[in-house]
Protein 1
Amino acid sequence: DAKTTQPPSMDCAEGRAANLPCNHSTISGNEYVYWYRQIHSQGPQYIIHGLKNNETNEMASLIITEDRKSSTLILPHATLRDTAVYYCIVRVSGDDKIIFGKGTRLHILP
Amino acid sequence: GAVVSQHPSWVICKSGTSVKIECRSLDFQATTMFWYRQFPKQSLMLMATSNEGSKATYEQGVEKDKFLINHASLTLSTLTVTSAHPEDSSFYICSASDFRNYNEQFFGPGTRLTVL
C-alpha cells in the first residue's frame, strides 16, 4: 500500500501558484519524498525529490515540514499544461521500486 | 538526457495471441527496469522489476508465465504478454533507473494494448 495520503482532486487558476499537499506520517528517517506527475495517456514524469530540506528546481518547489510528516509541492505559475495527476511517493532511493497511490488530479482553470 | 522509449505505442491483437512490448533507455544504460500496468482511471500498478542478466522479480499476484520479461542488455527490456485475453487490455508503462541521476527512474511513454 502507498504510504502517502493526498486529496483526490484540486483546482487552480491559471497563472496562480498550485500548492499540492501530501501526508506521510509514517515516513522513515532514510526515506525521501518524491513527486511525479502523469499527464493523460502518458508515462509519469519525475518532478522533484527531497529528504528534509526544501528543494527547488526549474519545475517546482518542495516544502517538507520539520517533522517530515507532510510536504507540499508548489508549482509557482500554473499553466494549462500542468493539468495532470500528481503522485507523492516516499522511498529509500531512486532505484527503489515505486508504489503509486491514487494521487491528486490537478485541474488548471483558464 | 534520460530518455526512455517504448515500442509499439499501441497495439491491437486477437485473443489468444502473444504480444511483445519493448522498453529502451536511449541515452543511458539501465541495470534495472520496471514494468507497470494501468487500467482506466486507476493508478499505476508495479508488475515486476527487471535486472539485466538475471530473472525478473514479480510482484504478488502477477503471473510470471503470462507476463514474460527479458532484460538481455543494459538498454533493452521486453515484456511479452502471452495468450492475451481481453482482461489484459491495459496501458503498460516501463521505467529505467539512470545511475547518472541518483538512480532515478525515468518512464517510457507507455503502450496501450487492446485485446479483442
Protein 2
Amino acid sequence: ETGVTQTPRHLVMGMTNKKSLKCEQHLGHNAMYWYKQSAKKPLELMFVYNFKEQTENNSVPSRFSPECPNSSHLFLHLHTLQPEDSALYLCASSREGSGNSPLHFGNGTRLTVT
Amino acid sequence: SQELEQSPQSLIVQEGKNLTINCTSSKTLYGLYWYKQKYGEGLIFLMMLQKGGEEKSHEKITAKLDEKKQQSSLHITASQPSHAGIYLCGAGASSNTGKLIFGQGTTLQVKP
C-alpha cells in the first residue's frame, strides 16, 4: 500500500465544472508535489510545496490552483479546464524539498475533460 | 534548461535476457533517480545515485552513474515478466531545489 493516497482515481468533468483533486501522505514528509503526465511526454512538474509554502510554480495556467493546508495534505483545484488538460495527475512527497531525497508517488488521478 | 534523454524508448526482450537502459543529461546531474511505473499508476522508487562513479544494486537491477555525472544506466540481469513496465530516470534540475525533472521513459516488455 502506497504511503501517498490520491482521490479520486478517475474523474470526468466538463469544461465549465469545478472539481478538486486530493492528496494525502502518511510518511511524515515535509515537501509535496503535483506532476502532470500526458501521453508520450515527460512528466511535467507543476507545483512544489516545502513546509506548506509554495516554492515552485512551473508556469502553470491559473485554471489550476493548488492548496496545501498542512504538510500532509495537498489539493489541486480545477476550474474551466480545456480538453488538452486531460492527463494523469500525480502527487508526490519527499522528506525535504532540496532534491536530495527521493519522491514517493501516489497512484494518480486520471482526469478526462470533455 | 536541463533535459534528460532516455534510450531506447521501448524494448522487447525474451525472458532470461539481460538489458540496459540509458539516461543522458544535458547538464551535470544533482542526484539521479530511477523509477518504475506500471501503466496508469504511480511511480515506484528504485534507486538514487549521487556520486560520480556510484553503483547500486537491488535484486537483479543495477544502476550506475558515470564519473562526469551526466549519464546513468540501468541494467537488468536475467529479465522476468515482473520487470515489465515503464522505467523513468529523474534528476534535480539544479542543486538544492525540489525541481525534479524526468526523462520520457523506456517501455519494457518481457516475453515469457
Protein 3
Amino acid sequence: EAGVAQSPRYKIIEKRQSVAFWCNPISGHATLYWYQQILGQGPKLLIQFQNNGVVDDSQLPKDRFSAERLKGVDSTLKIQPAKLEDSAVYLCASSLGGAGTQYFGPGTRLLVL
Amino acid sequence: QKEVEQNSGPLSVPEGAIASLNCTYSDRGSQSFFWYRQYSGKSPELIMSIYSNGDKEDGRFTAQLNKASQYVSLLIRDSQPSDSATYLCAVNVNGNQFYFGTGTSLTVIP
C-alpha cells in the first residue's frame, strides 16, 4: 500500500513570496490533515478535511494560509505572502476516519529567507 | 494552558533499561491517545494507540492510560540504541481535534 505522498520535499523562498505544497493521501482515507512543525516543537494542526469539507481550521492563519481538497482526494496548502516565521516542516497526514490512526507523509521543509 | 504536555527531556537511559515517558492532557473530552516516534529529520510514525483505561502492550512497548488523572504514559522495556528518538504524545478531542505535545527526546546509551 502506497503511503502519503508530498511534494516538493524542500523549498527555499524569500519573504513575501508565495509557495504551494501538494499532498496525496493513502487511497481510501477520507480524512486529511495539514500540520506545521517548527524545529523543536510538536506538530501543530493547521487544517483537517473530511472528504472535501473542512472539519477544523481554527489554527490556520487565514490571512496568509489557504488549503483546498476539491475532489476529496489530494490537497494543496498555500502560503501567500510568506513570512520568516513560516519556516518549518509542513506535514500531511491521512486517516480512514476522523479519530483514527494518522499516517504521515515525508513532509516539506520550507525555509523563508 | 497547553492541551498536551510532555517533559521535554532529554531523557537518557542505558541500553537494556526501562524508559518511561509521560504525558498529561487538559481536555476531559479527549477520546483517543497516541504515541508517535520521530527520528531526527523524519516524519512521525505511530507506535501505539490507546482508547480505554489501563495498560496496552505491544512487544517492548506498554501504553498506560488513566482518564481520571488525565495521564497517559509509554514504557519501553529493554531499551535499544535504535529507540533513540523524540516521542510525541497526541490526543484526539471529541473525535475531531488533534493536539500533539512538544515531544520528549530519548537517548539510549550503549
Protein 4
Amino acid sequence: DAGVIQSPRHEVTEMGQEVTLRCKPISGHDYLFWYRQTMMRGLELLIYFNNNVPIDDSGMPEDRFSAKMPNASFSTLKIQPSEPRDSAVYFCASSFSVNEQFFGPGTRLTVL
Amino acid sequence: RKEVEQDPGPFNVPEGATVAFNCTYSNSASQSFFWYRQDCRKEPKLLMSVYSSGNEDGRFTAQLNRASQYISLLIRDSKLSDSATYLCVVYRGSYIPTFGRGTSLIVHP
C-alpha cells in the first residue's frame, strides 16, 4: 500500500481564495482524521470520520472550514474564504479502529 | 489546565545518555495512550503504545501512571538518530485523540 496520500503537498494562495485539500486514506481503514499543525498551537484535531460519517467536528475553527468524505477512499478539507491565519501544515491520517494512526505527508498551506 | 501537556524542551543530551519525558493529561477517563515521533518537516509516526503495565521496545520504555495522570517515555543509550520531537497522544471519550505539543530532543556527539 502507498500509505496515506495527500495533495497538493504545497499550496500558496491569496487571502479570500478557496482552498481544497485532498486525502486518500489507506485501504481498509475505517477512521479518517484531519489535523492542523502550527508552531503556536501544535497538532490540532479538526474533524474525524468513521465509515465516511463525520463523528466529531468540534475542532473545526469556524464556518469557513468544511470537510467531506464521499466514499471510503477520498476526503476533502475546504477553506472558503481563506485567511492568512489559516497558514499551517494540514495532515490527514487514517486508522483501523483505536490503533496506530498513519499520517500522510501533509499539505503546507500559505495564505498571503 | 490544558488537556495534554508536555515540556517543549529542547532536551539536549550527549550520545549514550538516558533521557526521559513526561506527558500529563487532565481527563481521568482517558483510556488509550501512545507516543509518536515527528522528524523535522515530516509527518508524525507511531513510536509505541503505552500499556497499563508498562512496555519496552528495545531502548525505549513507556509507562502509565493513572493515579498521577501522566505517561512517560524513557530512552536509553541515546543515538544521534533519536533527535526528533516526541508527541504523546491521549484518547478521551469514544475515539477522540488529543496530541501534546511535543518535546524536542537533540542528541549531540
